[in-house]
Amino acid sequence: MEHGFIDRYGNLDSCVHRLDARVKILSAFSFIILAVTTPPKHLLAFVIYAGLLLWTVALSRVPLWHIVSRAAIVIPFSAFVALGLPFLEGKETVNFSGIDLSVPGLWLLAGAVMKASLGVAALVLLVSTTPFNRLLEGLRQLKVPSLFIDLLALTYRYVFILADQAMRLRRAAQARGFRPRWLPQAAVIGRQTGHLFVRSYNRAERIYGAMRLRGYNGSMPAGPSTALSGKNVLVLTLAVATLVFVRLFAK
Amino acid sequence: MKNAVPIIDVANLRFRYRDGMEALCGIDLTIHHGEKVCLAGPNGAGKSTLFLCLAGLLKAEGKIEIAGRAPDAKTPSPIGLVFQDADDQLFCPTVGDDVAFGPRNQKLPESEVAKRVAESLAATGLSGFEPRSAHHLSGGEKKRAAIAAVLACRPEILAFDEPWANLDARACRAVTRILKDSGQTLLVASQDLYHAADVCKRLIVLDGGKTVADGPMQNLLADKGLLEAHGLDYATRCPHCRQSAA
Question: Is B69 helix (H, G, I), strand (E, B) or coil?
Answer without folding.
Answer: strand
